[in-house]
Structures are given as structure tokens and as C-alpha cells.
Design a protein that fits this description.
Helices cover 62% and strands 5% of the residues. The protein has 194 residues and is mainly alpha-helical. Strand 1 and strand 2 form a beta hairpin.
Amino acid sequence: MKLFSKKQKTPSSHLTINAPSTEELKRQANAAYNTDNSKPSKKKSAHSKMENDIEYQKLGKEIQKHLQSGELGLYRNDLFASAEMLKRENKLMAALDSYMYVFYLDLIGISSLKSFRMGLKPHPSVAPGVVKRIDSIRKKLNLSDEELKEKYFECPRESIVPNSLFSYEETFKLLIICLNEDPESVYRFIRGKK
């Protein structure tokens, strides 16, 4: 479901924000908790599993709340927290997906839909810690750039955020540059786009 669409009323275009359905919000919130085929950690006790389940429930509610209210910065932070939990549980593919989504949201640079509607300029960024986590998981899973690309494009992310300075394809190219080449060149490129 696209939350944003442009309608041509006059020579200038207007932004329409469509409210997401409850099912769409639940799907987005639950996407962070997809399990993968990674082996679970043998150190887990039943107590820590129960604690994690409670944390996931709380985080899921926060994700829904922040997504529904258009607070993309807080939504981004929720996804990062989710990725950290998944990584601790050794659910590396799900953690990787969440980290890549955080990377994408950072490049969008919009902290809230309210500020976007007010016409404030986006502030894209790249968090080195997120890039390092993506790289670490990619190496643990022995993923090639092509396999990483397949994973990146599995979940369409453009539908919940407004148009940005970068296309979805460009954000992936920037990720690959950060991982394989010189992250500093990406920072310079982003500063030039602002």
C-alpha cells in the first residue's frame, strides 16, 4: 500500500497522505520479527525467552504507534532496537533486514511526516554503526553483493515513506559503496545532495 501519492490539481503537485490500514500497520510491525533459518543460541533460558517475548510485544506496539503517527525517526529507532534484539537471538537474516531498513530510513532523512508536510528539508545521513552491523552479518552469512541485493529488494520499503532525495535503487548502491569501498565518499555525496 502506498501511503503517498501525488495528485495533479493545478500546475503544481500536491502530496496526499493515505492512512495505512490496520493490517498494513500490523504487517510492518511484524516484519521486524520474522524468523529465519539461523540456529538459535544454545545459551537461552526459558526466562530470557519470555522476557524477549514481552520486549517484542512492547516494541511492536511502539512501532505501530510511531508509524501510525508519522514519527519516522522514532520508528527508525524502534527498528534498530528490534534488529539488536534479533541479532542477540542469532536471527541474523531478520536482523539484517531490519538494519538495512534503518540504513534506508537514515538516507530518507525525514524524522516526521509533520515536518515533511511543513516543507522542512530532509537531512539524510549514514550511521557508521548500522553499516558495520550490516557488514558483520553479511560476512557471518557469507552473502555476496548480489545476494544482499536480493535481500534488500525483498521487502518494498518505499510505500511507507515519502519521496526522498534518493531512489530505492540509489540507496542500495550507496550501501554497497559503504560496505565495499570508501564510506567517506558516500558522506560527501550526501552532503552534496542536501
